[in-house]
Amino acid sequence: MSKILITGATSGIGEALVHKYLKQGHNVIACGRNTEKLAQLTNHANSSQLSTLAFDITNTDDTEQAIAQVEQVDIIILNAGDCQYIDDAIGFDNKLFQHIINTNLIAIGHLLHFLLPKVSKHGQVVLVSSSVTIVPLPRAEAYGASKAGLDYLANSLRIDLAKNNIGVTLVHPGFVATPLTDKNTFDMPFKITSEDAAKRIYAGVAARKSYLHFPKRFTYLLKLIAMLPNPLWQRLVARSIR
């Protein structure tokens, strides 16, 4: 069975992925900041299959020390991230912007630096982005920019890692019920559970797909909107958000 490292493993999609991979008999390294939740995860799982690493991905020293404990992995699923919105474009919140870019993009670079040399031959890198990159949305300047950067990173990395027989999977989830989306005050069409998202990611990674997007009734709708003339789709998006 494979060894899987998952960041953001203490809640939402990450936690659901931990349970999914353990259920299928794999060995899992669950990573997160919350030591209490990591301990709870260990208590509810097969301890012989599960190990945990507690660190903050935005702290480079913590990340280096934690990953130093990892010998080799077959699949790394970089799922940890944050979502906050720019509520006042004129009074652009540069500190929030920096935090989101650091958490969702810069920290991924640090993780890749320390983890890629440990990925086994024919291994996989999975980057969990967002369907927000398909169509720009109001208030998503920070979150969308960070995930758009992640998209480019994944697609470029896939080319360069091909010679090492390491696959790269980019994941575009739609709305998924997680502690992050629970804070949203707007309608979230076609929202699915974390367990459903984990099931789809597990199947796509097992098939070594380069791109996953779901639920398709939502992501295809966004792709269709993105094909419309700019003024038209901008009005549609603004109206839907209101």
Describe this structure in words.
With 242 residues, the protein is of the alpha/beta class. It has one domain (3-241): Rossmann fold. It has eight helices and seven strands, in the order βαβαβαβαβαβαβαα. The protein has helices at 12-23, 35-43, 60-67, 94-115, 141-161, 194-206, 216-226, 230-241, and strands at residues 3-6, 27-32, 50-54, 73-78, 119-128, 167-173, 211-214. Strands 3-2-1-4-5-6-7 form a seven-stranded parallel beta sheet, sandwiched between helices. Helix 1 crosses helix 6 (194-206) and helix 4 (94-115) runs parallel beside helix 5 (141-161). It is globular.
Brief overview:
The protein contains eight helices and seven strands. The chain is an alpha/beta fold.
What is the mean pLDDT?
A: 92
> Distance between termini?
48 Å
From the coordinates shown, what is the CATH architecture? 3-Layer(aba) Sandwich
SSE sequence, one letter per element: EHEHEHEHEHEHEHH
Q: Which value, in Å, is the CA radius of gyration?
A: 18 Å
Question: Largest sheet, if any?
Answer: 7 strands, parallel
What is the total tally of β strands?
Answer: 7
Instruction: Point out poorly predicted stretches.
Output: none
Structural class assignment: alpha/beta
CATH superfamily: NAD(P)-binding Rossmann-like Domain
CATH level-1 class? Alpha Beta
> In order across it, which strands form the biggest sheet?
3-2-1-4-5-6-7
Count of alpha and pi helical runs: 8
Share of helix, binned:
40-55%
CATH topology: Rossmann fold
The fraction of residues assigned to DSSP E strands is 15-25%
What is the overall shape?
Answer: globular
Number of domains: 1
